[in-house]
Design brief:
Strand content: over 45%
Structural class: mainly beta
Largest sheet: 22 strands, antiparallel, barrel
Helix content: under 10%
CATH topology: Maltoporin, Chain A
Shape: globular
Distance between the termini: 31 Å
Amino acid sequence: MASNKKIKRAGVYSAALLASTMLTSVAAFAQDGQAISLEEVVVTAQKRSENLQDVPVSIQAMGEAKLEQLQVGNFVDYVKYLPSVSFTTAGPGFGQVYMRGVASGGDGNHSGSLPSVGVYLDEQPISTIQGALDIHVYDVARVEALAGPQGTLYGASSQAGTLRIITNKPSTAGFSAGVDIEGNIVDGDDTGHVEEAFVNIPLSDTIAVRLVGWNEETAGYIDNVVGTRTYTRGDADPTNDVTINNATTASDNYNGSSTRGGRAALRVELGENWVVTPSIMGQRTKISGIYAYDPKVGDLKLSHFYPEASDDKWVQTAMTIEGQIANLDVTYAGSYLKRTVDTRQDYSDYSYFYDQVGYGFYWTNDTGGLANPSQYITGKDRYTKESHEIRIATPDDKRFRMIGGLFYQKQEHGITQRYKIDGISYDIEVPGYSDTIWLTAQQRVDRDTAAFGEAYFDITPKLTVMGGIRFFKSDNSLEGFYGYGTGYGGTGERACFRTGGVNGAPCTNLDKRVKETGNVPKVTVTYKFDDDKLAYVTYSEGFRPGGINRRSTLPPYQADYLKNYEFGWKTSWLENRFRWNGAVFMEDWQNFQFSIVGTNGLTEIKNANQARIKGLESDVTLAVAKGFTISAAAAYTDAKLTANYCGKATNTGTPITVCPKDSIDFPDGPQAPDGTALPVTPKFKANVTARYDFNFGDYDAYLQASAVHQTGSWTDLRIDERGIIGRQSGYTLLDASAGVVRADWSMTLYVKNLTDKRASLGRYAECPESVCGAQTYITPNQPRTVGLKIGRKF
């Protein structure tokens, strides 16, 4: 009996990950007239197994049952139900996530800022510059959203919060398996399907394996309609004009994707005190077309002239080791992620609008004639991410307890982007890259090391104080080539200072490195009124390292910091039939990093000084009656500049905030004055779900309806660019589903976007708004989708 207790103690963290928790699902009730009550939610936000209601952190959690009930299959599906989370997306695998209004717009470029929200798969970070992995959500125990700076425990890219995807782990308790098959139709037209399966096999009393696989084909809903585009030479002779068409690329349901992936995990219990869990997970998503439309062409329509596609492949190997030394719990978590993304993108908007502002087209071929000036981009992004963490925790049932550890992470990003014009003269190509007028070939390395710890002390049985700190060191470098060949322009080859270059580039014109050190503290005081109610106050900080601008004439950008002041509460009422949690906060964002597309389409990152964010977030769950549950969550966010954004910085990277209109350096005044609302995040975002479970003959049946609402938002910080690109309107989306379960069989009929509402998940132009702003694209939500899903458990 004693040895069993030791095994359970050693694996307490794994046991938490095995739990399939439900935050807002069916109210648990007992037979024979016993009281209805909500189920307990177990989370591991503080890297311990804890009841959600006992954790003094603003957390929203969606358990496995909730994820299934809401038909969650990917990133966009779950973030829309998280009010503190906002996002932009260009399609599967290209989403940028933000929390509590900490967004400046323009993130996601390969040479831009690191993310402000950390995304974790189990114990391991999975964020990359281009966005977090868009993991297919199946056999997932829960998704946790931790709002506010999580710098002490989660580090650099958890400046504004952390998202955690917790998978189901192998279990030695017994055999289990399941399979689900789904068919769907989008907008009454194109069809898709999903096949998913898992199996858990105990190989002995101490060893178990879990295998998971999925295949998804998504329907298209963007039409690439036939169109033409005419380029004029800029003279009076129309015979010099060039007209192109998209007869070879036009098609209905132009977009669409296929996703295939799998996961394998092993659980090995070593002796009485140690558990080892190695795993491997991989996924490949192939996308055709793009997930945006041109409202001037029509609803869900555009006219693009060159083939567009992406191929996103990644594999992550990971290992978690948990054990006990004396009375200390020891955990090691390590991973290695490899991701490759190949893209092809129409860029003829740049060619066309650059022509229309008066330059005319002038690219020539090898015979001296005029070449078709249309551009397209082929890109190759190669990521690797290695992380290691070891931490030690004292027993959590003691009055004084601690958790602390060491962390190391190294991210490498090989960047190759070719801006191509078919048939251009050899003399103006970038050497070694045919038809390439502009080349970006660079290697970026981001290193992060840290030591962290949190200590808790129960002053009284009801009053607890916590203090934590993270000491970090960042080391970021960017080396390579960007620009033209020697036949054109003053950058590119003509700016090189070293022969030979990254990824086969002809030479090197950029090689810079920046190092920073610092620390972020956290202090929380918690008071428990009784077993069902607590309140807390927190001061915490988050950070994001600085880095290198690939335009070598610009200074490095500095680290930015977020200071958070928060009051929150966790309460249960009516004998645990009603749960109400919430938090009010104020955050100061200092020297925040702001990415824009500058001259020649180059991303520039500048520190934009100060912003203040005030907000309220809350969620409630009510077990109305036997089988009938209502849950709702909402967030109000007021995020504004507290100093002018002038668009320039000093030679050391310090933002300039005094820029009066009509001055010599700033004739137009600030690009965004003090008081300007930050972009991306809506002021109000909320959702509500009502679910009724009942018996229908020999079947367990249910009916469910959900609504998601948010107000409008801007996509850019700068006033002029806002006027060009436009504002994203608010929207309300409705989902409904019904299902039955009998024995091990289940069947679900669902409708997503019941009213076929068109929501804007992003607005953009292909190049700087001042050039390409007349051609604005909108990334919409998926139109009305009807699906049928059948499952079997074994």
